[in-house]
Automatic annotation (TrEMBL):
Residues 9-118 form the HEPN domain. InterPro entries: HEPN_dom. This is HEPN domain-containing protein. SMART domains: HEPN (SM00748).
Length: 129
């Protein structure tokens, strides 16, 4: 892996560990924030590694996945990533949250499952170069 890709990758892994720690500590909103950051940074690692360009300054995960130019066999992932991005904004900005709360593992279970599938898929692409 290129040096610049490795930097993004290591940050992604750190956010992944933070997300798991927060999830296990019942800090569900913060875990979603960290899961989002992990995906954002692993996508940026893939952009640097495979496309050889500076990644765009964007938090939109569906957009960033497209920028990686990786062949995605599951088109639903773009919808799932858009949903994860919405949760990121809700956690980051309380005025956007409205009535959405993250009070249990059960409430965020599907988001976490979707995160893991996509994150591990991209991680596999990066470490098996």
């Amino acid at each position: 892996m290129k040096v610049d890709s490795q930097i993004w990758f290591e940050q992604a892994e750190e956010h992944y560990r933070d997300a798991e720690f927060c999830l296990n500590g019942a800090r569900y909103g913060l875990s979603l924030y960290s899961y989002h950051q992990a995906l954002e940074k692993i996508f940026k690692a893939a952009i640097v590694e495979f496309i050889h360009k500076i990644p765009p300054k964007s938090h939109k995960l569906d957009f960033l996945l497209k920028e990686t130019e990786l062949t995605v066999n599951n088109s639903r992932w773009y919808e799932e990533l858009a949903i994860i991005t919405q949760h990121f904004w809700r956690v980051r900005y309380p005025d956007i949250r409205l009535t959405k709360t993250y009070s249990s593992k059960e409430k965020i279970k599907l988001i976490v499952i979707n995160f893991h599938k996509i994150y591990l898929w991209v991680k596999n692409k990066l470490i098996n170069i």
